[in-house]
Amino acid sequence: MEFRYKYVDKIPEPEVAADARLGKAIHAALEAALGGMGLGEALKRGRKDLVHDEEQARFDELSVAVSKFAERIEGFRARRRVQRELVEHRLAVDASFMPTGFNSRDAFFRGVWDVGFVYDNGALAVVDHKTGARRALAEYADQLQGYATLAAAHLAQVKKFWLGVHFVVDAAVEWSEPMLPENVRSVLIPRAMEQIEQAARLVSEGYGPRPSGWCKRCSYRSICPETRDGGEATPTSLAQ
Ligand code: SF4
Asked: How remote is the CA of residue 218 from the centroid of ligand 1, in Å?
């Protein structure tokens, strides 16, 4: 339903949930640090939009994890031959899964990587930061596979895709099994097409709220029928 509010009905976000604000702040700090800004400045940039003491305190706790990740990447750069670094990298494909501009009218499927590294041996590693509670890697499979689909279209030279999740709170990165371009073409693209068509059908049928763990971070809680009266997503509704 958040997708519908944001992209179909184009309703401006009525509020940004505290968890989402903190997540954005940490993402901004990581983006700045990975983009070459000094760590102190990067943390200041991330923290600047947080106005509540409690959020600032949580940000300061997580700052340790930001610096650990930045150090880890520094070590990694020293050990590996990285050809390109793609931070907050936006990609899109058209309905034939050919590369197109992120804001193009024919963009059919879009994604934004938090950070990607193209090695000179033809491998690509993409990492997505998660600031919420750690979950099983399998829960992010669709998102990671979507990144592989976009990468296969845009980076034809890539021979192997490594996809990982950085769990900021634990300062840990987990990797899924590496994928080959032929797997992306034969399995992931048909699956992505099916999911996109299903989403389009739901939009045209006027689908209702589908509560999930994401509701806690959703910016449309104040207008969504599931949560607007102060309710929380229930186990029953989570099973919908
Ligand atoms: S609160 Fe949950 S169900 Fe409602 S719009 Fe947000 S994510 Fe969807």
From this structure: 6
